[in-house]
Amino acid sequence: MKLRSILLGASAFALLSLGAGAAKADGELFFYNWSNYFPPELFDKFEKETGIKVTLDVYDSNETMLAKLQAGASGYDIVVASDYMVDVMIKEKLATEFDAKSLENFKNVAKPHDTMKYDPDRKYSVTYLWGTTGFTYDSDVAKEKLDDSWKEFFEPRPEFQGKIGALNDEVEMYAAAAYYAGVDKCTEDPKEAQKILDILQKQKPYVAVYSSEGTIDRMAAKEVAMHMQWNGASHRTKESLPSAVFVYPREGLSFWSDHFIIPKGSPHFENAKTFINWMMQPENAAAASNYAGYMNAIKGSDAYLDESLKTDPAVNMPEKYADRLVPGKNCSEKARDLRNRVWTKLKS
Amino acid sequence: MEFFTRHKRFWLIAPAVVYIGFFMGLPLLQMAYVSILERGTNGGVNWGSLSFDAYISFIFDRDLMDNLIINTDYLQIFLRSFELSALTTVLALILGFPTAFYIAMQPQSRRNMFIFLVTIPFWTNILVRNYAWMLLLRNGGLIDNLLNTIGLDTGGLDLLYTPYAVSIGLTYTYLPFMVLPIYASLEKLDHRLIEAAFDLGANKRKAMTRIILPLATPGIIAGSILVFIPCLGAYVTPELLGGGKFMMIANLIGSQFGAARNWPFGAALGFVLLALVLIAMMVYSLKFKKLPENAS
To answer: DSSP H helical segments within chain A, as ranges?
Structure first.
Protein backbone atom coordinates (compact mmCIF):
# COMPACT_ATOMS: atom_id res chain seq x y z
CA MET A 1 0.00 0.00 0.00
CA LYS A 2 2.65 2.39 1.14
CA LEU A 3 5.10 1.32 -1.52
CA ARG A 4 2.52 1.85 -4.18
CA SER A 5 1.80 5.41 -3.13
CA ILE A 6 5.49 6.20 -3.04
CA LEU A 7 5.90 4.83 -6.54
CA LEU A 8 2.88 6.77 -7.71
CA GLY A 9 4.30 9.93 -6.22
CA ALA A 10 7.68 9.32 -7.77
CA SER A 11 6.27 8.74 -11.22
CA ALA A 12 4.06 11.80 -10.93
CA PHE A 13 7.14 13.82 -9.99
CA ALA A 14 9.06 12.40 -12.93
CA LEU A 15 6.24 13.25 -15.29
CA LEU A 16 6.03 16.75 -13.93
CA SER A 17 9.71 17.37 -14.30
CA LEU A 18 9.61 15.95 -17.81
CA GLY A 19 6.81 18.38 -18.56
CA ALA A 20 8.84 21.21 -17.18
CA GLY A 21 11.80 20.11 -19.29
CA ALA A 22 9.67 20.12 -22.40
CA ALA A 23 8.38 23.59 -21.64
CA LYS A 24 11.95 24.78 -21.22
CA ALA A 25 12.86 23.72 -24.71
CA ASP A 26 9.92 25.75 -25.97
CA GLY A 27 9.67 29.50 -26.11
CA GLU A 28 10.66 30.94 -22.76
CA LEU A 29 12.86 33.80 -21.70
CA PHE A 30 13.84 34.95 -18.22
CA PHE A 31 14.44 38.67 -18.14
CA TYR A 32 16.07 40.44 -15.18
CA ASN A 33 15.66 44.20 -15.37
CA TRP A 34 15.33 47.37 -13.28
CA SER A 35 11.85 47.85 -11.92
CA ASN A 36 9.46 50.03 -13.89
CA TYR A 37 11.81 50.07 -16.87
CA PHE A 38 10.13 48.00 -19.57
CA PRO A 39 6.63 48.40 -21.07
CA PRO A 40 4.55 45.36 -20.08
CA GLU A 41 2.57 45.44 -23.34
CA LEU A 42 5.79 44.95 -25.28
CA PHE A 43 6.11 41.48 -23.75
CA ASP A 44 2.74 40.55 -25.24
CA LYS A 45 3.76 41.87 -28.62
CA PHE A 46 7.01 39.91 -28.46
CA GLU A 47 5.18 36.72 -27.54
CA LYS A 48 2.69 37.19 -30.36
CA GLU A 49 5.41 37.72 -32.94
CA THR A 50 7.93 35.10 -31.81
CA GLY A 51 6.00 32.68 -29.61
CA ILE A 52 8.48 33.29 -26.78
CA LYS A 53 6.99 33.97 -23.37
CA VAL A 54 8.96 36.37 -21.19
CA THR A 55 9.13 36.11 -17.40
CA LEU A 56 10.27 39.30 -15.69
CA ASP A 57 12.20 39.66 -12.46
CA VAL A 58 13.32 43.07 -11.22
CA TYR A 59 16.06 44.71 -9.16
CA ASP A 60 16.74 48.17 -7.79
CA SER A 61 20.42 48.66 -8.51
CA ASN A 62 23.28 47.31 -10.60
CA GLU A 63 24.92 46.04 -7.46
CA THR A 64 21.88 44.03 -6.39
CA MET A 65 21.94 42.31 -9.75
CA LEU A 66 25.70 41.72 -9.57
CA ALA A 67 25.53 40.30 -6.05
CA LYS A 68 22.80 37.90 -7.10
CA LEU A 69 24.73 36.64 -10.12
CA GLN A 70 27.95 36.38 -8.12
CA ALA A 71 26.12 34.39 -5.47
CA GLY A 72 25.46 31.86 -8.21
CA ALA A 73 21.95 32.76 -9.37
CA SER A 74 21.44 31.23 -12.79
CA GLY A 75 18.45 30.89 -14.99
CA TYR A 76 18.33 34.42 -16.33
CA ASP A 77 18.58 34.85 -20.09
CA ILE A 78 18.92 38.60 -20.23
CA VAL A 79 20.00 41.15 -17.64
CA VAL A 80 20.31 44.91 -18.03
CA ALA A 81 23.54 46.46 -16.75
CA SER A 82 24.83 50.02 -16.74
CA ASP A 83 28.10 50.93 -18.48
CA TYR A 84 30.53 50.40 -15.59
CA MET A 85 28.73 47.20 -14.65
CA VAL A 86 29.25 45.84 -18.16
CA ASP A 87 32.97 46.12 -17.42
CA VAL A 88 32.60 44.25 -14.14
CA MET A 89 30.49 41.52 -15.68
CA ILE A 90 32.87 40.90 -18.57
CA LYS A 91 35.88 40.84 -16.23
CA GLU A 92 34.12 38.53 -13.79
CA LYS A 93 33.14 36.26 -16.70
CA LEU A 94 29.47 36.69 -15.91
CA ALA A 95 28.63 37.73 -19.48
CA THR A 96 28.29 35.41 -22.47
CA GLU A 97 29.77 36.43 -25.77
CA PHE A 98 27.05 36.63 -28.43
CA ASP A 99 28.59 39.02 -30.95
CA ALA A 100 25.87 41.62 -31.28
CA LYS A 101 27.24 42.75 -34.62
CA SER A 102 26.22 39.43 -36.13
CA LEU A 103 22.57 40.12 -35.34
CA GLU A 104 20.45 41.21 -38.28
CA ASN A 105 19.12 44.43 -36.73
CA PHE A 106 22.46 45.69 -35.41
CA LYS A 107 22.56 47.85 -38.55
CA ASN A 108 19.87 49.98 -36.87
CA VAL A 109 22.14 50.97 -33.98
CA ALA A 110 22.97 54.66 -34.12
CA LYS A 111 26.43 56.05 -33.49
CA PRO A 112 28.12 56.29 -31.02
CA HIS A 113 26.23 53.36 -29.49
CA ASP A 114 27.64 50.86 -31.99
CA THR A 115 30.68 50.80 -29.76
CA MET A 116 31.29 51.33 -26.08
CA LYS A 117 34.26 51.92 -23.85
CA TYR A 118 33.98 48.67 -21.93
CA ASP A 119 32.85 46.54 -24.87
CA PRO A 120 34.31 48.20 -27.98
CA ASP A 121 33.48 45.38 -30.39
CA ARG A 122 30.01 44.82 -28.96
CA LYS A 123 30.72 41.18 -28.34
CA TYR A 124 28.74 41.08 -25.10
CA SER A 125 26.23 43.93 -25.07
CA VAL A 126 23.74 46.13 -26.89
CA THR A 127 22.45 49.47 -25.60
CA TYR A 128 18.90 49.38 -24.31
CA LEU A 129 18.32 52.97 -23.14
CA TRP A 130 20.53 55.81 -22.02
CA GLY A 131 20.08 58.97 -20.01
CA THR A 132 21.53 61.47 -17.59
CA THR A 133 21.40 62.16 -13.86
CA GLY A 134 20.74 65.79 -13.01
CA PHE A 135 18.16 67.42 -10.81
CA THR A 136 14.62 68.67 -11.21
CA TYR A 137 13.06 71.62 -9.42
CA ASP A 138 9.60 73.08 -9.16
CA SER A 139 9.81 76.49 -10.85
CA ASP A 140 6.67 77.61 -8.96
CA VAL A 141 8.66 77.42 -5.72
CA ALA A 142 11.74 79.20 -7.02
CA LYS A 143 11.71 82.98 -6.69
CA GLU A 144 13.77 83.28 -9.84
CA LYS A 145 15.19 80.99 -12.46
CA LEU A 146 17.85 78.79 -10.90
CA ASP A 147 21.42 78.74 -12.08
CA ASP A 148 22.35 75.56 -13.95
CA SER A 149 24.80 74.48 -11.27
CA TRP A 150 25.00 71.76 -8.64
CA LYS A 151 25.29 74.64 -6.16
CA GLU A 152 21.49 74.98 -6.26
CA PHE A 153 21.21 71.37 -5.16
CA PHE A 154 24.04 71.15 -2.63
CA GLU A 155 23.70 74.64 -1.15
CA PRO A 156 20.01 75.31 -1.71
CA ARG A 157 18.39 78.74 -1.52
CA PRO A 158 16.09 79.34 1.47
CA GLU A 159 12.92 78.40 -0.41
CA PHE A 160 14.33 74.96 -1.17
CA GLN A 161 15.92 74.22 2.21
CA GLY A 162 14.36 71.17 3.79
CA LYS A 163 12.58 70.44 0.52
CA ILE A 164 15.39 68.58 -1.19
CA GLY A 165 15.05 64.98 -2.34
CA ALA A 166 18.33 63.13 -2.95
CA LEU A 167 18.83 59.75 -4.56
CA ASN A 168 19.66 57.09 -2.00
CA ASP A 169 22.42 55.91 -4.26
CA GLU A 170 26.01 56.30 -3.16
CA VAL A 171 27.33 56.03 -6.72
CA GLU A 172 25.14 58.85 -8.07
CA MET A 173 25.34 61.16 -5.06
CA TYR A 174 29.09 60.78 -4.70
CA ALA A 175 29.58 61.45 -8.41
CA ALA A 176 27.44 64.61 -8.34
CA ALA A 177 29.29 65.97 -5.30
CA ALA A 178 32.58 65.13 -7.01
CA TYR A 179 31.59 67.13 -10.10
CA TYR A 180 30.64 70.04 -7.87
CA ALA A 181 33.93 69.79 -5.96
CA GLY A 182 35.80 69.52 -9.23
CA VAL A 183 37.48 66.22 -8.37
CA ASP A 184 37.51 62.83 -10.08
CA LYS A 185 34.56 60.67 -9.02
CA CYS A 186 36.94 57.70 -8.88
CA THR A 187 39.49 59.55 -6.78
CA GLU A 188 41.85 57.53 -4.62
CA ASP A 189 42.99 60.57 -2.67
CA PRO A 190 41.47 60.77 0.84
CA LYS A 191 41.79 64.55 0.82
CA GLU A 192 39.59 64.80 -2.25
CA ALA A 193 37.14 62.34 -0.75
CA GLN A 194 37.04 64.59 2.30
CA LYS A 195 35.99 67.50 0.06
CA ILE A 196 33.14 65.40 -1.28
CA LEU A 197 32.11 64.41 2.24
CA ASP A 198 32.10 68.07 3.31
CA ILE A 199 29.71 68.96 0.50
CA LEU A 200 27.39 66.10 1.32
CA GLN A 201 27.43 66.81 5.04
CA LYS A 202 26.77 70.48 4.53
CA GLN A 203 23.80 69.60 2.35
CA LYS A 204 22.34 66.97 4.68
CA PRO A 205 20.36 69.35 6.98
CA TYR A 206 18.50 70.64 3.93
CA VAL A 207 17.68 67.17 2.62
CA ALA A 208 14.17 65.93 3.40
CA VAL A 209 14.77 62.40 2.20
CA TYR A 210 17.32 60.15 0.53
CA SER A 211 15.35 57.80 -1.67
CA SER A 212 15.67 56.46 -5.19
CA GLU A 213 12.10 55.19 -5.30
CA GLY A 214 9.00 57.22 -5.95
CA THR A 215 10.90 60.35 -6.99
CA ILE A 216 8.10 61.25 -9.44
CA ASP A 217 5.32 60.99 -6.86
CA ARG A 218 7.34 62.89 -4.28
CA MET A 219 7.73 65.82 -6.64
CA ALA A 220 4.15 65.64 -7.90
CA ALA A 221 2.81 65.59 -4.31
CA LYS A 222 5.01 68.63 -3.58
CA GLU A 223 6.55 66.77 -0.68
CA VAL A 224 9.86 68.08 -1.98
CA ALA A 225 10.50 70.95 -4.37
CA MET A 226 13.78 69.70 -5.80
CA HIS A 227 14.92 66.16 -6.49
CA MET A 228 18.04 64.64 -7.89
CA GLN A 229 16.60 62.61 -10.74
CA TRP A 230 17.24 60.59 -13.83
CA ASN A 231 16.09 62.55 -16.85
CA GLY A 232 13.38 60.06 -17.82
CA ALA A 233 11.89 60.32 -14.35
CA SER A 234 12.05 64.08 -14.68
CA HIS A 235 10.15 63.82 -17.95
CA ARG A 236 7.46 61.74 -16.26
CA THR A 237 7.35 64.20 -13.34
CA LYS A 238 6.48 66.95 -15.80
CA GLU A 239 3.36 65.05 -16.83
CA SER A 240 1.84 65.65 -13.40
CA LEU A 241 3.81 68.75 -12.42
CA PRO A 242 4.14 71.01 -15.46
CA SER A 243 6.31 73.49 -13.54
CA ALA A 244 9.09 70.91 -13.16
CA VAL A 245 12.39 71.90 -14.77
CA PHE A 246 15.33 69.55 -15.40
CA VAL A 247 18.79 71.05 -14.89
CA TYR A 248 21.98 70.08 -16.72
CA PRO A 249 24.58 71.36 -14.22
CA ARG A 250 27.57 72.95 -15.89
CA GLU A 251 30.04 71.27 -13.51
CA GLY A 252 29.08 68.02 -15.22
CA LEU A 253 26.43 65.35 -14.91
CA SER A 254 26.50 61.59 -15.21
CA PHE A 255 25.69 60.22 -18.58
CA TRP A 256 24.84 56.54 -18.30
CA SER A 257 23.74 53.83 -20.64
CA ASP A 258 22.07 50.52 -19.86
CA HIS A 259 22.84 47.43 -21.88
CA PHE A 260 21.34 44.03 -22.59
CA ILE A 261 23.67 41.24 -21.54
CA ILE A 262 23.24 37.50 -21.77
CA PRO A 263 24.53 36.18 -18.45
CA LYS A 264 26.65 33.09 -18.05
CA GLY A 265 24.58 29.91 -18.02
CA SER A 266 21.59 31.38 -19.80
CA PRO A 267 19.17 28.47 -20.38
CA HIS A 268 17.64 29.98 -23.53
CA PHE A 269 20.58 31.50 -25.34
CA GLU A 270 18.95 31.56 -28.80
CA ASN A 271 15.76 33.12 -27.45
CA ALA A 272 17.84 35.81 -25.76
CA LYS A 273 19.46 36.65 -29.09
CA THR A 274 16.03 36.72 -30.74
CA PHE A 275 14.85 39.16 -28.07
CA ILE A 276 17.83 41.47 -28.38
CA ASN A 277 17.52 41.49 -32.15
CA TRP A 278 13.79 42.21 -31.85
CA MET A 279 14.44 45.11 -29.50
CA MET A 280 16.66 46.71 -32.14
CA GLN A 281 13.63 47.24 -34.39
CA PRO A 282 12.79 50.95 -34.38
CA GLU A 283 9.14 50.64 -33.31
CA ASN A 284 10.00 48.38 -30.39
CA ALA A 285 12.85 50.56 -29.19
CA ALA A 286 10.54 53.56 -29.46
CA ALA A 287 7.90 51.82 -27.36
CA ALA A 288 10.49 51.34 -24.62
CA SER A 289 11.46 55.01 -24.80
CA ASN A 290 7.86 56.17 -24.70
CA TYR A 291 7.26 54.09 -21.60
CA ALA A 292 10.42 54.81 -19.63
CA GLY A 293 11.12 58.34 -20.83
CA TYR A 294 14.71 57.65 -21.87
CA MET A 295 16.30 57.73 -25.30
CA ASN A 296 17.16 54.52 -27.11
CA ALA A 297 20.04 53.95 -29.50
CA ILE A 298 18.12 52.90 -32.59
CA LYS A 299 18.04 54.81 -35.88
CA GLY A 300 14.56 55.45 -37.20
CA SER A 301 12.85 55.14 -33.83
CA ASP A 302 12.12 58.89 -33.85
CA ALA A 303 9.14 58.31 -36.11
CA TYR A 304 7.45 56.30 -33.37
CA LEU A 305 8.33 58.54 -30.42
CA ASP A 306 5.68 60.49 -28.52
CA GLU A 307 5.66 64.19 -29.31
CA SER A 308 6.05 65.11 -25.62
CA LEU A 309 9.26 63.10 -25.48
CA LYS A 310 10.77 64.74 -28.54
CA THR A 311 10.02 68.27 -27.34
CA ASP A 312 11.15 67.80 -23.73
CA PRO A 313 14.67 69.18 -23.23
CA ALA A 314 15.06 66.77 -20.29
CA VAL A 315 14.97 63.84 -22.71
CA ASN A 316 16.01 65.34 -26.00
CA MET A 317 19.09 67.14 -24.74
CA PRO A 318 19.88 70.52 -26.33
CA GLU A 319 23.16 70.25 -28.20
CA LYS A 320 24.85 72.96 -26.10
CA TYR A 321 24.88 70.71 -23.03
CA ALA A 322 26.71 67.87 -24.78
CA ASP A 323 30.11 68.78 -23.30
CA ARG A 324 28.71 68.57 -19.77
CA LEU A 325 28.10 64.84 -19.94
CA VAL A 326 30.50 62.64 -17.97
CA PRO A 327 30.38 58.94 -18.85
CA GLY A 328 30.17 56.17 -16.26
CA LYS A 329 33.43 54.78 -14.95
CA ASN A 330 34.27 51.56 -13.15
CA CYS A 331 36.16 52.83 -10.09
CA SER A 332 39.02 50.93 -8.52
CA GLU A 333 38.62 49.02 -5.28
CA LYS A 334 40.44 51.75 -3.39
CA ALA A 335 38.20 54.44 -4.84
CA ARG A 336 35.08 52.43 -4.04
CA ASP A 337 36.26 51.97 -0.46
CA LEU A 338 36.73 55.68 -0.07
CA ARG A 339 33.31 56.27 -1.56
CA ASN A 340 31.65 53.81 0.77
CA ARG A 341 33.38 55.31 3.79
CA VAL A 342 32.18 58.77 2.81
CA TRP A 343 28.66 57.44 2.39
CA THR A 344 28.78 55.58 5.71
CA LYS A 345 30.14 58.64 7.49
CA LEU A 346 27.35 60.72 5.99
CA LYS A 347 24.81 58.34 7.44
CA SER A 348 26.43 57.37 10.74
CA MET B 1 8.82 -1.03 15.27
CA GLU B 2 10.05 -1.35 18.80
CA PHE B 3 13.09 0.64 17.81
CA PHE B 4 10.87 3.52 16.74
CA THR B 5 8.84 3.58 19.93
CA ARG B 6 11.93 3.50 22.06
CA HIS B 7 13.45 6.42 20.21
CA LYS B 8 10.17 8.16 19.64
CA ARG B 9 11.31 11.45 21.02
CA PHE B 10 14.37 11.41 18.84
CA TRP B 11 12.40 10.73 15.70
CA LEU B 12 9.86 13.38 16.53
CA ILE B 13 12.48 16.03 16.90
CA ALA B 14 14.73 14.86 14.06
CA PRO B 15 12.95 16.74 11.23
CA ALA B 16 13.22 20.02 13.12
CA VAL B 17 16.90 19.45 13.90
CA VAL B 18 17.68 18.53 10.31
CA TYR B 19 15.71 21.52 9.06
CA ILE B 20 17.43 23.99 11.36
CA GLY B 21 20.83 22.42 10.79
CA PHE B 22 20.43 22.62 7.07
CA PHE B 23 18.70 25.94 6.58
CA MET B 24 20.26 27.84 9.46
CA GLY B 25 23.47 26.07 10.44
CA LEU B 26 24.90 25.72 6.95
CA PRO B 27 24.30 29.31 5.86
CA LEU B 28 25.80 30.51 9.15
CA LEU B 29 28.91 28.44 8.56
CA GLN B 30 29.15 29.77 5.05
CA MET B 31 28.79 33.32 6.34
CA ALA B 32 31.53 32.70 8.90
CA TYR B 33 33.75 31.41 6.13
CA VAL B 34 33.03 34.35 3.83
CA SER B 35 33.83 36.78 6.65
CA ILE B 36 37.40 35.50 6.89
CA LEU B 37 38.06 35.44 3.16
CA GLU B 38 39.81 37.98 1.01
CA ARG B 39 37.43 40.17 -0.97
CA GLY B 40 37.28 39.94 -4.75
CA THR B 41 38.32 43.01 -6.73
CA ASN B 42 34.89 43.35 -8.30
CA GLY B 43 32.83 42.04 -5.42
CA GLY B 44 32.40 38.46 -4.35
CA VAL B 45 35.28 36.75 -2.57
CA ASN B 46 38.48 34.95 -3.46
CA TRP B 47 37.63 31.46 -2.28
CA GLY B 48 40.50 29.91 -0.41
CA SER B 49 42.57 32.94 0.55
CA LEU B 50 42.05 33.82 4.19
CA SER B 51 42.16 37.31 5.65
CA PHE B 52 40.96 38.95 8.83
CA ASP B 53 40.79 42.41 7.27
CA ALA B 54 37.01 42.47 7.58
CA TYR B 55 37.09 42.26 11.37
CA ILE B 56 39.96 44.69 11.67
CA SER B 57 38.21 47.29 9.55
CA PHE B 58 35.17 47.17 11.82
CA ILE B 59 37.10 49.10 14.44
CA PHE B 60 40.21 50.37 12.72
CA ASP B 61 40.89 52.50 9.72
CA ARG B 62 44.13 52.90 7.86
CA ASP B 63 45.19 56.52 7.72
CA LEU B 64 47.35 58.04 5.01
CA MET B 65 50.53 56.68 6.56
CA ASP B 66 48.97 53.22 6.68
CA ASN B 67 48.74 53.34 10.47
CA LEU B 68 45.75 51.83 12.19
CA ILE B 69 43.51 54.40 13.80
CA ILE B 70 40.22 53.86 15.55
CA ASN B 71 37.19 54.43 13.37
CA THR B 72 33.94 55.10 15.18
CA ASP B 73 31.58 55.25 12.18
CA TYR B 74 30.52 51.64 12.35
CA LEU B 75 30.38 51.59 16.14
CA GLN B 76 28.12 54.63 16.00
CA ILE B 77 25.74 52.85 13.64
CA PHE B 78 25.70 49.84 15.98
CA LEU B 79 25.12 52.06 18.98
CA ARG B 80 22.26 53.85 17.27
CA SER B 81 20.65 50.54 16.33
CA PHE B 82 20.83 49.34 19.93
CA GLU B 83 19.44 52.63 21.23
CA LEU B 84 16.55 52.68 18.79
CA SER B 85 15.78 49.03 19.49
CA ALA B 86 15.81 49.64 23.23
CA LEU B 87 13.52 52.66 22.85
CA THR B 88 11.17 50.62 20.69
CA THR B 89 11.14 47.79 23.23
CA VAL B 90 10.24 50.19 26.04
CA LEU B 91 7.49 51.81 23.98
CA ALA B 92 6.13 48.42 22.98
CA LEU B 93 6.13 47.36 26.64
CA ILE B 94 4.32 50.50 27.77
CA LEU B 95 1.65 49.96 25.11
CA GLY B 96 1.69 46.18 25.13
CA PHE B 97 1.41 45.35 28.80
CA PRO B 98 -1.90 47.17 29.48
CA THR B 99 -3.28 45.76 26.23
CA ALA B 100 -2.36 42.21 27.18
CA PHE B 101 -3.65 42.74 30.71
CA TYR B 102 -6.95 44.07 29.44
CA ILE B 103 -7.37 41.15 27.05
CA ALA B 104 -6.51 38.63 29.75
CA MET B 105 -9.17 40.08 32.03
CA GLN B 106 -11.92 39.61 29.43
CA PRO B 107 -14.27 36.63 29.36
CA GLN B 108 -12.92 33.69 27.37
CA SER B 109 -15.13 34.27 24.33
CA ARG B 110 -14.02 37.85 23.83
CA ARG B 111 -10.34 37.13 24.46
CA ASN B 112 -10.04 35.11 21.27
CA MET B 113 -11.60 37.92 19.32
CA PHE B 114 -9.11 40.44 20.75
CA ILE B 115 -6.16 38.17 20.06
CA PHE B 116 -7.45 37.81 16.54
CA LEU B 117 -7.56 41.58 16.23
CA VAL B 118 -3.97 41.90 17.49
CA THR B 119 -2.75 39.60 14.71
CA ILE B 120 -4.58 41.40 11.89
CA PRO B 121 -1.59 43.63 10.95
CA PHE B 122 0.34 40.48 10.01
CA TRP B 123 -1.98 40.01 7.08
CA THR B 124 -0.45 42.94 5.29
CA ASN B 125 3.08 43.15 4.02
CA ILE B 126 5.45 45.21 6.19
CA LEU B 127 6.37 47.40 3.23
CA VAL B 128 2.75 48.41 2.65
CA ARG B 129 2.31 49.18 6.35
CA ASN B 130 5.39 51.38 6.33
CA TYR B 131 4.07 53.32 3.36
CA ALA B 132 0.79 53.75 5.24
CA TRP B 133 2.72 55.28 8.12
CA MET B 134 4.42 57.67 5.73
CA LEU B 135 1.01 58.95 4.71
CA LEU B 136 -0.02 59.30 8.35
CA LEU B 137 3.11 61.03 9.58
CA ARG B 138 4.00 63.37 6.79
CA ASN B 139 3.35 67.11 6.79
CA GLY B 140 -0.22 67.61 5.68
CA GLY B 141 -0.85 63.96 6.50
CA LEU B 142 -3.65 62.65 8.69
CA ILE B 143 -1.99 63.27 12.06
CA ASP B 144 -0.75 66.73 11.09
CA ASN B 145 -4.22 67.68 9.85
CA LEU B 146 -5.88 66.31 12.94
CA LEU B 147 -3.64 68.34 15.25
CA ASN B 148 -4.30 71.47 13.22
CA THR B 149 -8.05 70.85 13.30
CA ILE B 150 -8.17 70.63 17.08
CA GLY B 151 -6.38 73.94 17.24
CA LEU B 152 -2.76 72.93 17.70
CA ASP B 153 -0.99 74.80 14.98
CA THR B 154 1.90 72.48 14.21
CA GLY B 155 3.22 74.57 11.35
CA GLY B 156 4.14 71.31 9.72
CA LEU B 157 4.74 68.40 12.05
CA ASP B 158 8.18 67.54 10.66
CA LEU B 159 7.97 64.09 12.16
CA LEU B 160 8.43 61.97 9.07
CA TYR B 161 12.04 61.24 8.14
CA THR B 162 13.29 61.51 11.73
CA PRO B 163 14.51 58.83 14.16
CA TYR B 164 11.22 59.27 16.05
CA ALA B 165 9.29 58.23 12.97
CA VAL B 166 11.49 55.13 12.76
CA SER B 167 10.78 54.31 16.37
CA ILE B 168 7.03 54.79 15.92
CA GLY B 169 7.09 52.54 12.86
CA LEU B 170 9.12 49.86 14.61
CA THR B 171 6.92 49.96 17.71
CA TYR B 172 3.85 49.51 15.57
CA THR B 173 5.43 46.66 13.61
CA TYR B 174 6.60 44.66 16.60
CA LEU B 175 3.87 45.44 19.13
CA PRO B 176 2.04 42.11 18.59
CA PHE B 177 5.24 40.27 19.53
CA MET B 178 5.08 42.01 22.90
CA VAL B 179 1.34 41.59 23.49
CA LEU B 180 1.12 37.89 22.69
CA PRO B 181 3.73 36.48 25.13
CA ILE B 182 2.59 38.78 27.94
CA TYR B 183 -0.97 37.72 27.32
CA ALA B 184 0.10 34.08 27.36
CA SER B 185 1.64 34.47 30.81
CA LEU B 186 -1.23 36.57 32.19
CA GLU B 187 -3.85 34.20 30.84
CA LYS B 188 -2.49 31.42 33.02
CA LEU B 189 -2.49 33.68 36.04
CA ASP B 190 -4.58 32.32 38.89
CA HIS B 191 -7.13 35.01 39.71
CA ARG B 192 -7.43 33.69 43.25
CA LEU B 193 -3.92 34.99 43.91
CA ILE B 194 -5.08 38.53 43.15
CA GLU B 195 -8.15 38.08 45.33
CA ALA B 196 -5.93 36.75 48.09
CA ALA B 197 -3.72 39.83 47.77
CA PHE B 198 -6.73 42.11 48.15
CA ASP B 199 -8.01 40.03 51.08
CA LEU B 200 -4.66 40.43 52.77
CA GLY B 201 -4.94 44.20 52.45
CA ALA B 202 -3.03 45.00 49.31
CA ASN B 203 -4.22 47.96 47.30
CA LYS B 204 -4.40 47.86 43.52
CA ARG B 205 -0.87 49.11 43.04
CA LYS B 206 0.56 46.55 45.48
CA ALA B 207 -1.39 43.75 43.81
CA MET B 208 0.04 44.81 40.49
CA THR B 209 3.65 45.17 41.59
CA ARG B 210 3.80 42.22 43.99
CA ILE B 211 1.57 39.65 42.27
CA ILE B 212 0.76 40.37 38.67
CA LEU B 213 4.04 41.84 37.42
CA PRO B 214 6.27 39.11 38.88
CA LEU B 215 4.02 36.43 37.44
CA ALA B 216 4.01 38.14 34.06
CA THR B 217 7.80 38.54 34.04
CA PRO B 218 8.52 35.53 31.80
CA GLY B 219 6.09 36.94 29.26
CA ILE B 220 7.59 40.42 29.51
CA ILE B 221 11.08 39.06 29.00
CA ALA B 222 10.04 36.85 26.10
CA GLY B 223 8.19 39.78 24.55
CA SER B 224 11.12 42.15 25.01
CA ILE B 225 13.49 39.71 23.35
CA LEU B 226 11.06 39.14 20.49
CA VAL B 227 10.83 42.89 19.91
CA PHE B 228 14.42 43.90 20.56
CA ILE B 229 16.19 41.41 18.31
CA PRO B 230 14.19 41.82 15.11
CA CYS B 231 14.40 45.60 15.64
CA LEU B 232 18.18 45.35 15.44
CA GLY B 233 17.77 43.87 11.99
CA ALA B 234 15.28 46.47 10.76
CA TYR B 235 16.01 47.40 7.17
CA VAL B 236 12.90 48.77 5.49
CA THR B 237 11.70 51.10 8.26
CA PRO B 238 14.87 53.25 8.53
CA GLU B 239 14.93 53.56 4.74
CA LEU B 240 11.30 54.62 4.42
CA LEU B 241 10.29 56.35 7.65
CA GLY B 242 13.80 57.59 8.42
CA GLY B 243 14.15 58.96 4.91
CA GLY B 244 17.42 57.08 4.46
CA LYS B 245 19.20 59.78 6.46
CA PHE B 246 20.96 57.46 8.84
CA MET B 247 21.76 53.80 8.74
CA MET B 248 20.90 50.99 11.07
CA ILE B 249 22.99 47.82 11.12
CA ALA B 250 20.99 46.08 8.40
CA ASN B 251 21.35 49.02 6.02
CA LEU B 252 25.10 49.03 6.61
CA ILE B 253 25.30 45.30 5.90
CA GLY B 254 23.15 45.75 2.80
CA SER B 255 25.42 48.46 1.47
CA GLN B 256 28.46 46.20 1.89
CA PHE B 257 26.91 43.53 -0.33
CA GLY B 258 25.69 46.28 -2.67
CA ALA B 259 27.54 49.36 -3.78
CA ALA B 260 30.65 48.73 -1.62
CA ARG B 261 31.04 45.20 -3.04
CA ASN B 262 32.73 44.10 0.15
CA TRP B 263 31.20 40.74 1.02
CA PRO B 264 33.65 39.75 3.77
CA PHE B 265 32.97 42.97 5.66
CA GLY B 266 29.22 42.52 5.25
CA ALA B 267 29.47 38.98 6.58
CA ALA B 268 31.72 40.12 9.43
CA LEU B 269 29.22 42.82 10.41
CA GLY B 270 26.53 40.15 10.48
CA PHE B 271 28.71 38.07 12.77
CA VAL B 272 29.55 40.92 15.12
CA LEU B 273 25.82 41.56 15.47
CA LEU B 274 25.17 37.88 16.09
CA ALA B 275 27.90 37.74 18.73
CA LEU B 276 26.61 40.85 20.52
CA VAL B 277 23.06 39.49 20.60
CA LEU B 278 24.25 36.11 21.84
CA ILE B 279 26.32 37.68 24.62
CA ALA B 280 23.41 39.89 25.64
CA MET B 281 21.09 36.90 25.70
CA MET B 282 23.53 34.84 27.74
CA VAL B 283 23.99 37.57 30.31
CA TYR B 284 20.27 38.04 30.42
CA SER B 285 19.43 34.38 30.84
CA LEU B 286 22.11 33.86 33.49
CA LYS B 287 20.76 36.78 35.45
CA PHE B 288 17.21 35.70 34.99
CA LYS B 289 17.95 32.14 36.03
CA LYS B 290 19.15 33.34 39.40
CA LEU B 291 16.09 35.44 40.12
CA PRO B 292 13.52 32.74 40.91
CA GLU B 293 16.04 30.93 43.11
CA ASN B 294 16.65 34.04 45.16
CA ALA B 295 12.97 34.78 45.28
CA SER B 296 12.01 31.32 46.54
So the answer is: 2-25, 40-50, 62-70, 83-91, 151-154, 170-181, 190-203, 215-220, 231-240, 269-279, 282-292, 307-311, 333-346
